[in-house]
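Hey,

Quick one before I head out. I ran the complex with D-malate overnight. Inputs first:
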Amino acid sequence: MTQIPAADVELTVYPDDCDAAGTVSHGAFLKLFERARWEQLGRGPGVDVFTREALWPAVRRSVLDFHAPVRVGETLRFQQALTHLGRTSFTLRQTARRMTDDTALATAEFLFVCIDHHGQPQQVPEAVGRFYSARPSSEPIDRITVNGVSLAIETRGSGLPIVFLHGFPLDRTIWRHQLDTLSGYRRIGYDFRGMGQSDAPDLGYSMAMYADDLAALLDALGEDRVVLCGLSMGGYVAFEFLRRHRSRVRGLILMGTRAEADSAEGRKARDGLVAKVRDSGAIAAAEAMLPRFFTSTVPGDIIEAVRAMILRAPVPGIIGALTAMRDRADSSQMLATLVGVPTLVVVGQEDIVTPPGISELMAAAIPEARLVEIPGSGHLPCIEQPVPTTRAILKFLQSLR
Ligand code: MLT
């Protein structure tokens, strides 16, 4: 049976982890991250999983972002996620959180190369790849390599296929309710390159690339024509897909998105956020986006889940997405041409990122498009008001039969 990574590892901070100021020092944090990795491997394939094959995982690159001080006596929870698995190398992202309030204290990314006694790169032991790639059965993910990048994907059910395209800087799990409940349809959710659990190359991000990844993914899944459901940045990807592969679109759902390109001011803001993310990591994206995502009545656990999702996003992927959005083409002229592409426009009534007025104009410009406004929702109706959102999607899908 495949072993599931024992999700999290808890470690307590002792005085010898701290500097004279009583906080965990940089070196000690590296050590704690390392201890958490071995601890987790020990609960799975064993701490000798490399030496059994006369190999060693050498760290080739490490990136460590500190978010808050950590003091003696605190217990930390370490989460590990595999973000890339190559032939001889793999990347682990780790997050350390304070047990008492779940605050993210530090995130780190380690690129390992497996080497033998001569320092020569060798294949990553199969047991390691299997261990880190395994997920609990409630999260049935798969991986498909397209255009040289391995994407995390989950598919459910059968029937008319609908592909869910997530927003920035999120991942496919924002569609959990829709993926779980839209039975009678083949639901396909995946993480864009650079997001979630997909590989995050340093370069190669553009709307064209995201759209071509999607086309290649559909080829791999054997799907010719699909319904696209894109939230915000996912909508930008849908527009680019229409530009490049229109005949493959059976229907279109545009959620909390816009057809216009970025204004000069918007492009400047993207560059500003790129600089901040380069400096401080994913937390800068969380700080920029989270306060604008939800209504004031959203439950705290939803905010925390989305915060954790953003903190898990790889820095190269966040920067890549920001530059791709900054440089995207204007799609407003396309709206009137969408004759024969059944379209539903959905927006949260309290969305301040893409206010309802934008969706109203967009729906009016698309021939025969329908508009649904979701009460009590901000920018992410699929998470904040999942039931009415899924219902609106279902009604639209039923109208396509
Ligand atoms: C998103 O939710 O995907 C972003 O808000 C899109 C954007 O920044 O334009």
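The radius of gyration is 22 Å.

Talk tomorrow,
K.
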